[in-house]
Amino acid sequence: NHLQLTEGKIIYIHPTQYRMFYRCTIPMSLPALIKRIDYPVKGFYPEELTADIIRKAEIAIIDIHWNYALAGAYQLVKDLKELNPEIIVIAGGMTASMYPEQLTQKLDIDYVIRGDGEIPLPALVNAISEKTDMTHVPNVFGKNGLVTEWSYFLTSKELNKNEFYDLRFFPSYQSDIRKIHKRHFGWPNYTFPYLLPFRGCPMPCPSCAGGIGEQKKLFRRGYVVRDAEKLAGDLSLLNSFKDIRFVNVIHDFVSLMPEDYVNTALSTPNRLSLVYEFTTAPPPERLERLFGTFRRGVLYFSIDKMHTQSDHLIDPSVLINLIEKTKKTGRFIPVLYYNSTFKSNPEYVKVLNAVARQTRCLTADVSGWWEDFPRPDENGIASPESFSKFFDLSQKPKLSVLTKLKRWLVFRLYLVFTFILPDVLLLKIKSAYVRLFNPYLQ
Fold this sequence. Notes:
By secondary structure, the chain is an alpha/beta fold. The chain folds into 2 domains: 10-142, Rossmann fold, CATH 3.40.50; 169-365 and 419-436, no CATH class. It is built from 18 helices and 13 strands. The protein has helices spanning 30-35, 51-56, 70-83, 94-98, 100-105, 120-130, 156-161, 171-183, 212-219, 228-240, 253-256, 259-265, 284-293, 316-329, 346-359, 384-394, 401-420, 423-436; strands at 10-13, 42-44, 59-63, 88-92, 111-113, 140-142, 198-199, 224-225, 246-249, 273-277, 296-302, 332-338, 362-365. The strands form 3 sheets. It has a 6-stranded mixed sheet. Strands 9-10-11-12-13 form a 5-stranded parallel sheet. Strand 10 (273-277), helix 13 (284-293) and strand 11 form a beta-alpha-beta unit. Helix 14 (316-329) packs parallel to helix 15. The N and C termini lie far apart (71 Å).
């Protein structure tokens, strides 16, 4: 009765997300979780699936990390089970963790992994494979009434074991990444590979699911830090990959971690370019450390002390000094991040314009980042009403033929810009667009 899970028996599928520009935006830790599974896993985008692939598969793993994936996941599971009623679907991710009951009842998903998946996911796959008792697998919510204890929480020791950069399980995703890196040194951001110093974030940002307050509800733990030596090893490994030209850092360890941590992580210069987001103002000597470690890059400076989520502004003279230092390198491009939701605050607008005028740096309005997201209760569960709301928002928009044509043209133009124009020109076009449509930014 033992399931012989050979290649093709376990598939991973990244659901369609209609509000994402790039299909190759997957959860940062996903490759590491797949690598922990004892059996071969093959990755696909939904449009790559054939009837033969679906009928052969016995287990399908899908990520429902961002709420944008809900409608795509619904259609995906429906398609899978129409062709293969026996297939077992496992879902995980931040949004999945908040809606286990809705996913099992309304989306027909068999099992949901709640919280961190490093131990539960491979253990659940093993239990399905060996047809053993699943009650020993932590953090599982099943549509068959199975609810196991939420007893697994990620530790630094386990996070240090993760291997984030092996993409061989997902050939088309790997191909997408190679195409992007072939032409760019820092565009688009939020693209593989990422340098991951921690899971969660030390900052208590109110509108971010990665903030320490939300992490405690979503994962029942605080932020978890990797060893600095692991980051140094990651950079050395990425530096050896000929197809990789840049690395993304959206977890700001340079500003937030102790100095010895930063010095250890950035101990060896490399050939990589860098895309880095500062949550607050970094000490100047740490900025110099970045300059000495990476070849070139794009550095995003926040106007406030909480990653653009507050009007607690950084001293303008400090920001100006950091931006001017960056410009003087001739190798790094500074971009000033701000949030237009604070435009009613005269001091905010005054500081924004003063810094932008004096430094003549590029600017970017990131107010679109901080749209509402499902707010879980203290047990990590979001309300049924919020599920309905975010499910509707995640569906493919119903548009007129003319609007569809306009969007098609804009998207194709965007892709042409992305894959033909140089990064510096792309950033300048984006900055000019921002200034054109924000009259308070002079």
